[in-house]
Write the structure tokens for this entry.
Amino acid sequence: MGTIWPQSLGDSKGPKYKKVADTIRSAVQSGALTAGTKLPPVRELAYQLGITPGTVARAYSILTDEGVLEAEVGRGTFVAHRKTPVQDDVWSRQLHLLEAKDPGHVSLFSPRIADMGQVAAVRETLQKVAECDAYKLLNYPTRDAYRPVREVAARWLSQSPVGPVSENDVVLTHGGQNGLMVVLQAILKGPQPVIMVEDLTYAGFRRAAELLRAQVVGVAMDEEGLRPDSMELAIRKSGATVLCTSPEVHNPTGQFTPLARRKQIVEIARRHGVQIIEDDCYRLGEARAPGYRALAPELAWHVSSISKLLTPALRVGFALAPEGRAADLRRVAEYGYFGLAQPLAELVRILLSDPRMPELMAAVRAEMARYVRVAVNVLGAFDLTWNPDVPFVWLRLPSGWRAAAFTRAAEAHGVQIRSADEFALRDGRAPHAVRIAVNAHVPLKQFEEAMLRLRALLDNPPEQISV
């Protein structure tokens, strides 16, 4: 251990605890300190370096939080055994939801993504943000100040087929829902504008429309997504000027809209001057077809976020405008909330620039797919729509079950799921189906047990049909 240390920490600027942490981290990364190596006790290392024990203890604590070190009560501090550079936060990967006071309760209400190292990455990045230029912590944000963040976001978004993206096209938002609101505010005109959505759709579309005093009309669906004939009819009857849709991963059914159908929708939108908003927040894998912004660059808007690939806790999303409309989008964001808090924007810049991120996102995707496969293995005998790159499955209930009754029965057995009714319009009709989200905050075995409880219910419908 002594061979990695200088005679002193030197006279360079910066806190001593950081120099100690940096030295240990570099030694681990270079292989000078291997997994399982025991580090000196705090007081011994402090004496060796001529610093206070508190300084060493703080360095050890930072590295333990990052997963570089692990402390064992009564034994000491060791270099952690790390599977990959980003899978290093064992405690948080075994996170159990505090809301589940009953150990038998599993919430499958909304997707909970697996921690494959992003908690450690966020902690590490927060430390870097804390040491950033004081200017970013004392001043109002400006457009120029956000440029580096937008450049990183533009590179990240350009990996998807959304058409050309420059930093000037990107507006930073507080998550996907805020992105949707910003886009709608830039589009909607008149005393009561009309928005089209699928008959079953993400409830956030409807809620955003209600806040903006817009009317919502439904468009019928089939196995390829919304039906062009129904869209044409809705436009003629209601005068709708906006379509909100999710062609890659429809929420809640998980359906995918193929390219041929997308082209039909674009043709109708062009003919009637309808703007298209594509919500791409649920896709974990590669896009299977060009987005609407690539197919119709003059009329399509795009909204995405880091919630399903990294963490929903940061509430960071991205909105893209069609050709010639970026200024409208920026104006809404600037008038509405000035922009993201500068420390948050800096955190996003560092995270998305981290060379570990592609590996980390791939690990999240693979872990979520493990949970999806468990659900399919248990429930696959029923009418199930699923995809390993979608963090939920859509289950059409067998004869004898109604959606409301099944969700109540499931909750009585400790499993919380969403009924199709929650995705229907207020005056619409919902099928007898439920959405079952992946919760990777519980161990895979506990998730499988929840699936088995659902299967037992499916196999034993009630004697009398209830609603």
Notes: The first helix runs from residue 16 to 30.
